[in-house]
Amino acid sequence: MLSDASSPLAQEILRQMLDGTTAGVAVLDRELRYSYVNPTLALMNGVPSEQHLGRTIGEVVPGIDAREDVLRQVLDDGIPREVTSSGHTRAGSDRERRYWHGAYHRIEDDGQVLGVIGIVLEVTDAREQQRDLEEARARLSMLDRAATVIGTTLDMDTTCEELASFLVPDVADIATVEVIPVDGTTELRPPPPGVLRLRRAAMAVLPRLRERSRAFEAPGQYVDYQPGSAIPRCLASGRPIVENLPNDEALSRSAPDPQRVTRYREAGIHSAMVIPLSARGAPVGTLTMVRSGGSPAFTDQDVVTAQDLAGRAAISLDNARRYTREHHIALQLQRALLSGPSHPHPDLEIATRYLPSGTSALVGGDWFDSVRLSQERTLLVIGDVMGHGVAAAVDMSHYSAMLRVVADEGLPPHEILRRMDALMARVAGERPATCLLALVDSRHGTCTYASAGHLPPAVVDRGNRVRLVDVPPGPPLGTGQGGYASFTRPCVGGDTLLMYTDGLVERRGEDIDRSLQRLTELQLPDDPPLDQLLDDLLEQLMGYGTDAEDDVAVLAARFTPR
């Protein structure tokens, strides 16, 4: 040990230690002016040691948040403190921001405060690693949340809405999802040569931009993109496109059409990012995000986050798109298989509705028909083949076609059912079916019913009361049991006959009598047109436009004698 710290040897050893350490060391006087700086700190600051002396930290390195308030506290109370400073010194650096961690102690001599000594280490690498770790954790957390809220259904537009809503406001001020139209789902004229047409499936907007966003296409509308604009370029390259702070000329080239630049500027839009949505090697559409006003420009990290989200969402979108295309084909097949009601006699008005099941099977065995037998007589038909799927739909087409042939023989309704039952029982593999017939005779003002295991019809009278018609059912068709009967009831002019399949009224876990009672409790408008009556009926019973648990077929007929 050195017995005299002030000896030349001790001072030389101290100098070597201070000059050779990799930590920056400085001594500041009571005015926080440099009185000593070691070579390491001089190198950190980019200023020679001698040019520090007599100057404050702010004068030497004005780009540093030096936290001089903390240093004054150390001078005042003598309690050592540690603090992290950040910014840039005069030494060149390619870092976005540099960080230093310093420990400060008060210097005293015989009770007299001389100043502060500080020992500083640069911790930029550690801070950036910590920041990267935190950003990675945040990104993983976001992806985990996205997995639970994006792709919850097989409806493509719902999936797009979930994606856009998830991004606003955390990633973008406005987010839109455009999809490549599914073949055969649009009847619009083809776009001009070189123009790309996409359908806007979803848009999410910050509240402050909601009014401005009304100038742009709403979800469900189609957008035509000029050649060379951002979205066609993104789809062609399969790579993200980021345009931060573009001038008006660049913005007009990237926009769907140049006329939009004024509206973009009015909304304060200054940055845009377009991410391709692709799955299984095929493009699905694009995700566009914009920032406006005081929001920062997009960073590389934003691109990585958006690509991660887009990659996961694209799989759900592709599944939904495949389902949408197959569902569209299935509906076209179902409508083709359904017999188009022929023209009834002049005193009978008819309206129909068909809603496919929103669960599992895409096609089913529900059908309706009207067969004009003479000038005064029309046979109304509704039926339901048991089961779902293509096989049920094919069997339904067999029942429908055979019933038309049998009906032309002029038999009463119960005899038609008897013949149908016997014929279908001989055909191997045909599924049983329920069926309800109503023969309307305008000359006699009567309606004759016969039922093969089907739910009873209902009549809506002029007072808007709904009552069930008592038609005892026989066995379903195709069982070969026979035993059908006809029941004749008067037809009152202006009354509306409702014939329907079980999907209209049946609910899982509910007794069928309660389901039918709900039908009789409906509050319908006064003397509505048939189409409006059916829309109100479906809206009240099941929420028109929502997914049905089972296929629904409804036929409404109104007798209006002249």
TrEMBL record:
Keywords of the record: Hydrolase
Transmembrane segments: none
Highest taxon of the lineage: Bacteria
Domain PAS residues, every copy: 10-61
Pfam family, one: SpoIIE
Name the UniProt record assigns to this protein: SpoIIE family protein phosphatase
Organism: Streptacidiphilus jeojiensis
